[in-house]
Write a structure and sequence with these properties.
The chain has about 80 residues and is mainly β. The chain contains one helix and four strands. A hairpin with a 4-residue loop joins strand 2 and strand 3.
Length: about 80
């Protein structure tokens, strides 16, 4: 359990993670860094209390920061 903090600041922690796939699934591609075929997901967490906020699938061969601005722009926690 986290401790509640009085803060008006929201820290969004974006991470990319690779997920192996098998078969002919859409958006999968070979990732040379991991040496496998799969998705290269983006995941967003509240950086203060580590709550999951959002995830999105990307082609498996995209660079780690590709699409981060568009991904983040679609999440508006205060609206």
């Amino acid at each position: 359990m986290h401790q509640h903090r009085e803060s008006n600041t929201l820290i969004i922690d974006l991470d990319s993670t690779h997920a192996d796939t098998y078969g002919e699934q859409e958006l999968t591609a070979f990732n040379t860094h991991y040496g496998t075929v799969g998705f290269h997901r983006l995941v967003a967490f509240n950086g203060t209390i580590r709550y999951f906020l959002k995830a999105g699938l990307r082609r498996g061969n995209v660079y780690t920061s590709n699409g981060v601005l568009d991904f983040g722009a679609t999440y508006h926690p205060l609206q």
